[in-house]
Amino acid sequence: MTLAAATNENLAHLSNTLIYSAMAVYTLAFFAYITEWIFGSRSKIGRTAAALTGDTASKAQAPAVTVKKAGTTAVLERPKVVVRAAAGARDVPDGPGAHGGDEQGDLYGRIAISLTVLAFLIEFGGVFARALSVQRAPWGNMYEFNITFSTVAVGVYLTLLALRKNVRWLGLFLITTVLLDLGIAVTVLYTASDQLVPALHSYWLYIHVSTAILCGAVFYVGAVTTILYLFKDSYENKLANGGTPGTFATSFLERLPSSASLDKFSYRVNAAVFPLWTFTIIAGAIWAGDAWGRYWGWDPKETWAFITWVAYACYLHARATAGWKGRKAAYLALIAFACWLFNYYGVNIFVGGMHSYAGV
Amino acid sequence: MSKTTPPAAAERAEDQDVGAARSQLSTAPQEDAPGLPTLGVIGWARWFWRQLTSMRVALLLLLLLSLGAIPGSLIPQSGTDATKVADFQKNHTFLGPVYDKLGLFHVYSSVWFSAIYILLFISLIGCIVPRSWQFVGQLRGRPPGAPRRLTRLPAYTTWRTEAEPEQVREAALTLLKKRRFRAHLAGDAVAAEKGYLRETGNLAFHIALVVMLVAFAWGQLFKSEGNKLVVEGDGFSNTLTQYDDFKSGNLFTQDDLDPFSFNLDKFTGTYEPSGPNRGTPRTFQAAVDYSIGAYGKDKKTTIKVNEPLQVGDSKVYLTAHGYAPVITVRDGKGEVVFQDAVALLPLDSNVTSTGAIKVMDGYRNAKGQKEQLGFQAAFLPTYGGGTSVVSQFPALTNPVLNLEAYHGDLGVDAGIPQSVYQLDKTNLKGFKDSKGKQLRKNLRPGQTMQLPNGAGSVTFEKGIKEWANFQVTRQPGSGWALGGAFVAIFGLAGSLFIQRRRVWVRAARTADGVTVIEMAGLGRSESAKVPEELGDLAGILYDQAPGAPEPEDPSEDAPEGPSEGPSEGPSEEPSTPDSTSDSDVVPAEGAETK
Ligand code: HEM
Prior knowledge:
Chain A is mainly α.
């Protein structure tokens, strides 16, 4: 019995050490990302401007036609598919990413990603040790939510990278907030490891909370992209209307994907997790039905989960409604994420209710 | 472009062409401008209905619903915490009445909140019905024929082949059908469509929302919820009179109660024995045997905090527990006048408990007069020694019962309901000890306190019982809500992950006797998957109809226009600029600026 307690204590210590180490490595990664952006600013790129200031009128009329090389010796290769942007959409190419094509910048970017992978593994170890020390899933209080949340967010980012999605430009923004999140976790929210009170004991805990954390991480990625979309979109608008954006904005925004790509990416991300978020709420309701005798009771946490859900449904509807596409829908996405964030922190800290756990 | 046709007109004609290809690719309602109606009452009604069922209004109502749900999470609600509401009203003399008028203390049952969701509900139904009809129509109809100029579609490819056009079309039809497209031959082209599951999913999702809403409302109307405290060894049968308290929905009737009964055999609570979380509960469980119906067989089970007992529509939850010391009271002659386990109310997490023991009849005092006895009880499952009055640990490690003895009139016969945990001391007199002070004593299990002057005795028996509080809830319709929820998730996944798209394959013979194949794809929304899939299909078809050498004269390489069908119109112009003929596969976007 005491032996077990001692190992648990050691594991808890190990977990803390790992979390601090992860923070250190994330900090290094952060500086590497910054360096990537700085080196990247040396290169001069103006892809957006070039695309937007071209003869747009003639471009809109010209039909896309495939023409193959004439001649009897023509190679009979497979037909290529020509893709044509929808009418009215700007046809702006994606930026090259933070390094802006600069070789040294690219090198630092790769270092940053390697460091991120390393930090992720360390942080994962920290979360895992925590789980072992408390002998349950590490989701019993806000501290544990925070460390799991940032691990999952970084995991989502690395998974997207591994799938060869064009998301490398997200790195700096993600790691900045991961450091913030961990900083808050270890200073304000830290709670000594402890087991759960009976009310939290249920396998629905694992289902409900793990999907909630995953949804949050993905919604977060969607929100960051949406914000960048708004910047890039106004930048493109300004260019298209003949304005000249500031040099910093130009250098920074030119390297991001086009607003259309950012918009599409954030929509995909948000739409992809929306069913999972729906499931999370339902799993929560089932759990509440078992634990408290009613599956829905308008407890603040439930209410805000519902508000978040409706807000994201609004966003999806907005995308299907004429006149709401683009920026207006983007604002809705941000409002929806703000609701999620408020539910995650605000409700625990300001409102209370049955979802307040041991130690916040 | 052409000199004979103004470009804008050509553009418009082509847009119409593509518009037809795009038609009925979804069942989303058309957005029409909110122009005002002209036609009297019916016109207004139709206008109103059209507005209500439009996407714009659905969006607005959804926004309102999320906004409307906010105050309920920030202002105390009478449904969940009535005392907080009372406190709020006491502390906010101005806001209190205003909030009350606006229904802000019961947001989720307020008129305005109901109005929002009922409107949304109507809008939802008004949206689903026509969309379902439309969808059925689309399923019975066929995908629209190929637009004249496939080049204008988002994904396009073409090549020349020596195969016969009929052969190519036949091959394309077979290929598309094998890929589970709905395909048919229309003129010189094959038209195909796939991804109907998207619409099915979307409709299923919205219908499931209606089912969930109805199930929820049904549950609210017919629900019931009651509490019953049961001491170990005692039982409960599910009739209205047995409950300590009971709430029910507006349409509930007594007959709705499921017939069952149970006995509490044993309650077990365990607690963290040491460390910083000493005393934190680890398990709570109640071993019961229960039977269903009047003559049902006895079955044994345990009820835990997260694991209710389900009988029919009813669920029996374990919600609280405490101690019930067994007390024996004797009169002056030594006759037992009271013997029972007395449930005491826990005050803190270490189960410091208070309560009252009331001997209502059967007792006569030393003078032989009828009188009532009352004892104010404080119970510590773990007594810390000395003058400590709070328990140190929730389990029974060192139990002590403190009793204060009174006699006189308990006031229970006045007909005014009275708490079982408190003594009404207005007509009671305290027994005095030898020093003339209120008689009060700490008892350990098995000890007896003598009442002065031969008034009798009170014994704290060994074998302390525990009690458990059970909440019995019945919420009919929750099965429907759950079913609806799962349909909603799958419908949503189908609606969001499946792309509805169309593919056209045109094969037509050109003047030089070679067949030109054109393929184009169109998705409901822009997606990288559409060109990918088109490339895939083209690759397969290419193997069956391999490419032929390009003609020398590029002006004849006109992939436009069908060889039959309406061939008049401005868009018939071959639009391939000669200047591009020497470039490799190039979309003509950049061609004219060269
Ligand atoms: C309780 C309220 C509602 C919720 C939570 C809700 C939720 C959703 C969601 C999440 C989607 C996204 C699926 C997708 O993009 O394909 C969607 C699509 C859709 N909703 Fe709703 N909806 C609600 C009410 C309504 C109402 C009242 C209407 C009718 C005006 C409606 C019409 C549609 C249509 C037409 C689509 C498909 C749009 C498309 O095909 O892109 N919905 N809804």
